[in-house]
Design a protein that fits this description.
This protein has about 500 residues and is of the alpha+beta class. About 55% of the residues lie in helices and about 10% in strands. The chain has four domains: about 90 residues, Hydrophobic Seed Protein (Orthogonal Bundle); about 160 residues, Beta Polymerase, domain 2; about 160 residues, Hypothetical protein af1432, CATH 1.10.3210; about 55 residues. The chain has 27 helices and 15 strands. It has a seven-stranded mixed β-sheet with strand order 3-4-5-2-1-8-9.
C-alpha cells in the first residue's frame, strides 16, 4: 500500500547513521582500558584465544556507549571468567552457568559498572520444533556463523599479540555503513535455527532505523509461522523494545508486511482493511493507529502509554457496522477494546497488574475528551472526566490529542483548540482539589446503616446519585444538602 511506501520513505529520509570507521590500531586505542587488559591477561595466562563480540563491537562503530561486554573464548569461557575474578578480587561477583557453558563477572571499576559475559566458542544445531540447540565446542568461525546478523557477528581480538584486530568475515562493517540488516548465513537457516531472530531482525531495523535486506525479508515472510514455537515472554520483550524505539511505526509496518503481526497480535493486524459500500469507505484503522503511536512517541517515553496508543482502536473490528444513513460506524469500540486488553496482555505475558489496568482505562476513556471537545466544553463534563481518569488525566489527554489525525486541517485545528480549553479547565479544577472533593461526605457504610441495607444494588444507586449531584454542581459537597437529597431519593426507592 501507499502508506507502507510513505512510512519507508519517511524512515529513509530520517536516517542519519552516526558511524565512524576505525583501523585495528585505532580499535586498540579505544580498548586501551583496564577492563580489557585484565581480560586479555586472564586469557593469555590460560593460553586461550579471546574476543569481544556482538553488540559491544557494533556500538563502538555506531559511537553508542555500552558497559555490557560479551566475550567469546576459543576453549572454556568459564575458566577465563574465573581467572578474571581472581585478578579483580573481592569486588567482583562471579556467576557460573555450567549447563550453558557461560559465566558472568560483575564489578565496578573507576566508577563504571561492568557486566562481562563469557562463553566458549561453539557451534549449534537445532531440531525443527525446538529453540533448544545441541551445543558443541567450536572455533571462532563456528561462533560467528551462529550469530544472528552480520552487524552482530564482528569480533575484536583481546589477546596481547593481536590486541584490537577486527575479525569481520561477513562484511558486517559494510552493512553497518549501509544501514542494512542481513544474516551471516542463508537467512532461512538463521531463522529456522532460532525463530526469535525474526523478531530481533525487525527490532534492530526499527531501533537503528536500518532497512532489512531483501533476501532476509523474504525469509521473514516465508518462515513467519515458525514464530509459534517461541514463548510469549520472549516475543513480549522484543515487542516492548520496538514500541520504545524512536519510530515504532516502522517496526509494526515490517511486522505486518512479513505476516508476523497476524500471528503475535492478530487483533491489531485485523485493523488493516478498508471496506467500501455504496461508494463510502472508512479509514484504514491500522495505519491510523500507527500515526497515533508516532504522535504519542514524540511526547512520551512511557511504555504503557504507547501500548494504550497501540490498543486504543483495537475494538473497531468487532464494532464495525454499516448504517445506510451515516455510513460506517464503530459504536462502543472503546468499551469493546477495553474488554479485549486483559486477554491480549495475558497471551503476550504482559503484566496483569496496575499497568494493564492503566492501559485498559485509557482505551476505555479515550473517546470522552473527544466527545467533550466536539461540543461546548462545560465544567460538569470536565469534572466527570477528571473524576473517572484520576491521576492519569494528563496521559489520557496526550493520547486523545495524538488521536486527532484528520487530514482536514480546519477540523484538526478546531479539536486541538477545544482540547486546549479542556486542559485549561482541568488545571482550574485540579487547583480547587476536586479529586478530594468528588468523594461525597456520606459514604456507603453510612447509607447501609441508615437504611438497614446489606451491600446491594440499592446502595450503589444511592452513592452514585449523590456523586452525580456533586459532579453536576447541583449541590455543594456538604453533609446537610446531601442528606436532604439522599432522603428524597430513598423515598422514591421506597426505602423509607
Amino acid at each position: 500500500m501507499d502508506m507502507w511506501k510513505n512510512i519507508r520513505i519517511f524512515a529513509l529520509s530520517k536516517r542519519n547513521i552516526r558511524m565512524k570507521l576505525y583501523s585495528d590500531e585505532e580499535l586498540a586505542e579505544i580498548l586501551d582500558q583496564e577492563i580489557f587488559h585484565q581480560i586479555s591477561e586472564a586469557a593469555d595466562r590460560l593460553g586461550l584465544e579471546c574476543y569481544v563480540v556482538g553488540g559491544y563491537v557494533r556500538d563502538i562503530f555506531l559511537e553508542r556507549p555500552s558497559n555490557d561486554i560479551d566475550v567469546v573464548v576459543v576453549g572454556s569461557g568459564i575458566s577465563v571468567a574465573e581467572e578474571l575474578k581472581r585478578m579483580v578480587g573481592k569486588k567482583a561477583h562471579l556467576s557460573v552457568f555450567k549447563n550453558f557453558g557461560t559465566a558472568q563477572v560483575k564489578f565496578r571499576q573507576k566508577g563504571i559498572e561492568y557486566e562481562v559475559e563469557f562463553v566458549g566458542a561453539r557451534k549449534e544445531s537445532y531440531s525443527h520444533d525446538s529453540r533448544k540447540p545441541v551445543v558443541e565446542d567450536g572455533t571462532l568461525e563456528d561462533d560467528q556463523n551462529r550469530r544472528d546478523f552480520t552487524i552482530n557477528a564482528m569480533a575484536i581480538c583481546l589477546n596481547k599479540n593481536r590486541f584490537g584486530e577486527l575479525v569481520d568475515p561477513f562484511n558486517g562493517l559494510a552493512d553497518l555503513e549501509d544501514g542494512i540488516i542481513a544474516t551471516p548465513l542463508e537467512p532461512g537457516i538463521t531463522f529456522s535455527d532460532d525463530p526469535l531472530r525474526m523478531m530481533r531482525c525487525i527490532r534492530f531495523a526499527t531501533q537503528l532505523n536500518f532497512q532489512i535486506e531483501d533476501e532476509t525479508f523474504e525469509a521473514l515472510e516465508r518462515m513467519a509461522d515458525r514464530i509459534k514455537i517461541v514463548s510469549g515472554e520472549r516475543i513480549k520483550d522484543e515487542l516492548n523494545k520496538i514500541i520504545l524505539s524512536p519510530q515504532p511505526s516502522k517496526g509494526f509496518v515490517d511486522l505486518q508486511r512479513s505476516g508476523l503481526l497476524n500471528i503475535i497480535l492478530p487483533e491489531l493486524a485485523a485493523l488493516d482493511i478498508v471496506e467500501q459500500k455504496n461508494g463510502r469507505a472508512h479509514k484504514n484503522n491500522f495505519y491510523h493507529t500507527l500515526e497515533v503511536l508516532e504522535n504519542v512517541a514524540r511526547h512520551s517515553d512511557n511504555l504503557w502509554l504507547r501500548w494504550a496508543a497501540l490498543m486504543h482502536d483495537i475494538g473497531k473490528t468487532k464494532s464495525k457496522r454499516w448504517d445506510p444513513a451515516i455510513g460506517w460506524t464503530f459504536h462502543n469500540h472503546n468499551l469493546i477494546g477495553a474488554k479485549m486488553v486483559p486477554q491480549i496482555f495475558r497471551r503476550l505475558m504482559l503484566p496483569m497488574d496496575m499497568k494493564m489496568k492503566y492501559v485498559q482505562k485509557l482505551v476505555d476513556l479515550h473517546m470522552r475528551p473527544i466527545a467533550i471537545a466536539d461540543d461546548i466544553v462545560t465544567d460538569s463534563a470536565v469534572r466527570r472526566l477528571l473524576n473517572d481518569a484520576g491521576e492519569d488525566i494528563d496521559d489520557l489527554m496526550t493520547l486523545c490529542e495524538a488521536d486527532i489525525t484528520s487530514k482536514n486541517e480546519g477540523r484538526k485545528k478546531m479539536f486541538l483548540e477545544n482540547f486546549r480549553m479542556v486542559r485549561e479547565k482541568l488545571t482550574d479544577l485540579k487547583e480547587k482539589d476536586y479529586v478530594r472533593l468528588l468523594q461525597p461526605v456520606i459514604d456507603g457504610n453510612e447509607i447501609m446503616e441508615m437504611f438497614h441495607l446489606k451491600p446491594s444494588r440499592e446502595v450503589g444507586v444511592l452513592k452514585q446519585y449523590l456523586k452525580d449531584a456533586v459532579l453536576d454542581n447541583k449541590v455543594e459537597n456538604e453533609r446537610e444538602p446531601l442528606m436532604a437529597l439522599l432522603m428524597e431519593k430513598a423515598k422514591q426507592m421506597k426505602l423509607i
